[in-house]
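Give me structure tokens for this 419-residue protein.
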Amino acid sequence: MDMKRMMMAAALASVVLAPAAFADSGKGKTGTTGTVTPGTPGVTDTRLVAKLIPTTSQDPTFEGHAARRTGAARDEFEARVEVPLALLGEVDPADVHPDLVLAGAILLGAGVAISSRASSLLEFQIVYGIMVGGSASSIFVPMMVVVTGWFEKHRAIAVSLVSAGMGVAPMTISPFAQSLLATHDWRSAQMIIAILAWVLLIPTAFLVRRAPAQAAAAAGVMQAGDNGMTAGQALRSPQFVVLAGTFFACCAMHSGPIFHTISYAVACGLAPAVAVTIYSVEGAAGLLGRLIFGIAGDRFGAKPVLVIGLMIQALGAGAYFFTRQVGEFYGVAIVFGATYAGVMPLYAVIAREYFPLRIMGTVFGAASMISALGMALGPALGGWVFDHFGAYGWLYIGSFAVGMGAAAIALFFPPFPSQ
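Here you go.
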């Protein structure tokens, strides 16, 4: 069974299984609303999932609530939620097809919906990690590969604009989740967002079209500039090693500050409702950052722009160490949000410059899987820092160091074949 059929089968199976999960509706130990005694293992009335609800990757809106109410240490909570997503990684869409995006849309809503009926923390993490992690893999990588195939000129800005949708979530779904949780229990709030994901994503998935070069590659037609490199050769190449290493370090650097800054702001005395807006500011800045870095990537080259962006990103992460007031948080959030969002699309652009389109799904999927390990590492280490030192200072110092390391790795990119 090929990848697209397997993903569609999994999506349809999740829809068939969903009614059985809904029928439990939190019965038994958790009661009708899922409430358990604070400090005991299991899913509570706390909005456990709010850290993950708003996007398929990461939203830290209620991470502090979840960790406190489940009685789990921050590093334990973050490792359990993030690692399943990282271990699943990105589905290898060597045959990139719009059906993968449709399957991902179905799985996303199903994963969020079914996990809303979870009766324990472990059950929630397994369901959410596998289903939502799988959905992310079958949406993000195919979309990036498709757009690199459609555009030869102005590729950086094209990829940046397509990826800008991810930056909309902190500005929209995070505040929406906050408002839902003010009037609903977390199970109902998560179910509403699951339905919203289906309503928005499933119709949109039918608009995705293969690039002409992709269709030709699938038919076995050799494209101009294709050097005949196999997927195995690509994954062992110096280009891929540098790409994956930079991607990993970049994500390890920014994931900790993204996840923990709301809790850090609350610890500095900001009201939770105000602290959440910091994440929204990062998201808004990210939209502008994608535009700026996309234009710069086309004008000056993706590699030098990536190196500069990584250095600025590291400085932004380190600057959080010195912030205490709301205005300071907003200022740093603008710089940090613009750079971490701005550099992310450049990895797909660089990968496409090095590798032929027919293996881009495999190559970029593998690089994204490695970057997901970095995304898992940052929040877990940040939680460990807080649990052991009672403060976040070393998180931001460490993030600065790792970010500079990412920029140093990127300096070792070989010249592009076209150069």
